[in-house]
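U., I forgot to send this yesterday:
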Amino acid sequence: MVIDSQEELKWRLRALCGLRNTPGAKIIAVGGPDARAQPPGVVPKLVEEKWKFEIKTISCDELGKLIQEAKRDRKTVNEGRQAARDYLKLPGTRLETDLSFVENAFLLEKILLALMKSAGCRAITINGCMGTIMPLAETTACLTLSLLNDAGYLAFCESDFVVIPSGVLLSNISGKPVFLNDPTYPHEGIITLAHCTAPRRMGGRQMEPARILTHFESDYRAAPRVEMSRGQVVTNIIPDFVSRRWVGLRGKIEDAPFMPICRSQIEVSFEADSRELARRMPGFHWMTGYGDYLKEVGYALRRVKISWEQL
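Result:
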């Protein structure tokens, strides 16, 4: 079809760009691939079949050896310390935990970057962070994953392959980092979304302000509290457990509260009926990105035979 609207061409090309770059994606799963509240192996197999993902498992023991090697290398340790100090000098950055935890997060970043380079990929996820990474790295992976997303990689916590394909697709469509989060219960046109890791370059370039706190559940080590922009329109993707139905929801950030839940928090308003949203929410985790890309996601999903329900 030849049309005279450049905007019509642009959004379709964005969708096709995302679609072309998502199937066949290579991703490292530290601690193995997983899925929230699902039998072991079932969802990763679905993802490999539907999206043709190449999932490479790195055991926690392997990562532990790499961490110990890095800690014995004075040059690597000093580079991590300097990078941490440079990061904390960025405008809008406030340290509210111990500096050594931030230094360890930068050391872990160097290790994960080397793993991705060796595997020839730009995506990574970590399973069971609290039980595995904290004792090995002497920090949480929260800040490290935030750093990797800001640097243009795709880095997710929890190895939840129910939602990870939606993050890869949305990022490939938008060209921006995405925020994997835990939803709460929608009420009166508002839902709170939160997690202890979030990118700061949610808009693609500018760094959002951030407080570097402890990880919420453990009150330990380093996690970013990213102050996302109020008034920002966001795309929310809610995948189901069996890769058959995704729900899309346009929203707007109304507030970035500081409640006793995961550190990076946003209250998002939406136009759908709250009870209907509660009934139609499949899966568990949500994927959120700055901007409105609902049309693009739906256009791409038609080609992988996943139904798209836009509320």
